[in-house]
Each structure stands twice: as C-alpha cells, then as structure tokens.
Amino acid sequence: MIHVSPTTTAPRPRSLFRSLYFQVIVAVIAGIAIGHFWPQAGTALKPLGDGFIRLVKMIIPPVIFLTVVTGVAGLSDLGKAGRLAGKAMVYFLTFSTLALVVGMLVANIVRPGAGVHADPALMDGQAVASFAAQAKAHTFSGFMLNIIPDTVISAFVSGDILQVLLIAILFSISLSHMGPRGHAILSLFKQLTELVFGVVRLVMLAAPIGAFGAMAFTIGRFGIGSVLDLAFLVLTFYATSALFIIVVLGLVARYNGFRILPLLAYLREELLIVLGTSSSESALPSLMTKMENAGCAPSVVGLVIPMGYSFNLDGTNIYMSLCALFIAQATGVDLGLGQQISLLLVAMISSKGAAGVTGAGFVTLAATLAVVPDVPVSGMALILGIDRFMSECRSLTNIIGNAVATIVLARWERELDTKRLHAAMAGLIPEEEAERPIIAGSAENA
Fold this sequence. Notes:
Subcellular location: Cell inner membrane
Protein name: C4-dicarboxylate transporter DctA
InterPro entries: Na-dicarboxylate_symporter, Na-dicarboxylate_symporter_CS, Na:dicarbo_symporter_sf
Number of strands: 0
Membrane topology: Multi-pass membrane protein
Number of helices: 22
CATH superfamily: Sodium:dicarboxylate symporter
Order of helices and strands: HHHHHHHHHHHHHHHHHHHHHH
Keywords: Cell membrane, Membrane, Symport, Transmembrane, Transmembrane helix, Transport
C-alpha cells in the first residue's frame, strides 16, 4: 500500500468543469428543469438513466470477484476472513435493527399519517398488487437458497452480488491452498483487477448522462407536485435518515477515530451519482475504490461492501418501519406495542429476503404489512407516487452506512491505514493516486 506522509501537501486542484462532482450537479439540475418544464421530453430520457445503471451492473460481477479473490487469497490466515465475515454480520444486524427502531420511534412521535384520514375502500389495490405478489414470492429461505447459483457462469450472467461473492470466496480458499503454484494465478488476477478498474473509470465518465436522464424521467413522470401532496411524510423520512446518519453513524465514526462529515465530503461524487440515479448499485465499484484509497485493506472492502449491499440496508429499514406506521395512521388503524414489535421482527427478515429485487423497498414493505392483517396492504397506494423520490434517500443512507461499516470493520481487524484515511478525507492524496486501486500490500495497523 502507498503510505501518505504527514507532510504531504494538497494536490493542485483541477478544472472545475472536469470534476465529476460538478458535472453530476449540473446534470441533476438540468434533468429537474427538463422534467418539470417539458414532462414528455423528460420521460423520454429514461433510457439514458437505465443505460448507465446497466453499464454499472455489467461491471459489478468482475469487480467483486477480482477484489475478493486478490484480497482474501493474499491472507496468510483464512480464519481471519471467516472472523471478518462473522463480525460484519453482527454489525449489520445490529445497525439494521437500530435503523428499524429509529424509524418506528419517529413515526410514533411525529405521527406523519395522523391527519390523512384515508379510506382503504376507496384505494386502488390493483396499483400495488404486483408488489404484494413479489413480497409473497421472496421468502427468507428462498433468499438463502438463491445465494447458491445454478452454475459458476450463471452467477455472472444474473449479476447477483451474493452469488458472485460466494464463488469468489470459494475460489479464494482454493487458490490460497495452492501455495507457490497459485502465485502466478494471483498475479494474473491482480493485473486483471487493474484492467477492470480501468473499465470502471471509463463507465463513470457517463455518470452525468445517466444522472441527467434518470432525474429528467423521475420529475417528468411523477412531477414535483406528487411530492408536495405528501410532503410531510417525505420530509419526515429525509429528516429521520439525516438524524440516523449524523447522530447514530456520526457517534460510531467518532468512536472509531474519524468524523462523518469529512467522510460525506470524500464520497460526494458517489452520493451525487446515487441521488441522480436512485440506485446505490450505480456507485458500488467507485465506492470500493474509494474505500481502498482511504486506507481500508482490499480483503475487508471485498467482503464487507458486497455483503453490506444485501444485509446492511439502514435506509431501507428506516423507510419500512416509518411507512408501515404511516399507512396504519393514515387508515385509522391503531397498532399496539406488540403489533409494532411484530412488524419490526418481520421487517428484519423481509429486508433480507427481498435484497437485490427491483423495487426492493416497496416489496419488503408489502411483506412487512402482511404480518398485521389490520393494516390494509392497499394503503401502499398512498405512497406509490412518491416512492421514487423516497428511494433516493433510501439509497443514499444505505451507501453511507456501508462506507462507515467498511472503515469500522477495517479498524477492528487492524487493517486500516489511519494516516491514509485522514489524508484522503482531507484531500491530500494526489489525483493520480486516488484513481488507482490498491490491490497489493497490507494496511498499516490502526
């Protein structure tokens, strides 16, 4: 790993117009304007956003596979990888549950649905029928079995993150047992990693175009007015997510030797891409690179981030508990403490069972509501029009939670270069280094 001296000076700033951060901001603003003033034109730009997300999804499987193999196979102690995975699961379950509790507490205190007075009999149940059907189809046991792909190749074809992760771990274990004979293969994989991350940088050049098309479609299709109709719920959700990030994740960050606001500034490009595309997957390859450049060991990044994308969904969990109680309040259903706890327990499971499903947040909400018959699933029609706007906040909170988890777990494993972490957040790593993935060497112990 490249170490950064405390005396390293700040790199010379490049042109603002060449900054991906600036380009995405301009693209998002332009997309909002097109969608608002020319809705039909904005809706027609949907393929731009879809195309960018497909480009990113295309490159995710090889990124995960190569990152995990080069990281884990390079460890002298495979038991260390097992301990890391165990610690990661404990961390994910703890903070996912905490996110559910935070959403439930805010819903009971603020009561965003108390003044809606919606009649379930007048709602269009057909509008959410497909989501309810998906919720029944995706059980926790089915999710666990789906981790095992039909073939090695099918995992890469489907792009399922956990399937690719499983194959990568098996290959890593086998490669590590080959001894000196595996060195040539590991060296080849490291060169392929550089090649793949070069492709990632090319794909990210299209991020402003993707953000422009996705934002234009969202505003053109649903309109800003759809947000204003249920503005209090949207604001409550965004405020609750911000509270969770600043207070809960902020305290976790402070306890582990870094601050949350510099981390958000460091990840500003990734956050803007997620905001524009409403998909956290669109920033997954770039997030992995940023975490390695910030001093987290590749073995930690390769395991924690792919697992986190399925098990560490803080934003989705806040959304589920908050919206479930919003629908109950809006339809006049008074849920007791026992029923709310039942909702929370089911949400803990359903959020894992529908991981990776398109529209997962809405699907898991349907599965959660099914456990309490008193709450009409048709009440989801209330938030159908604004779900797209709320998905942006879900994705932002999810990616921030996974970034924090990666740094924390790297520190726990003594695989965090703290000097490089603080230098990266202070903008002291030269641009040419920040764009190159770190694929060899060990991190300085924290």
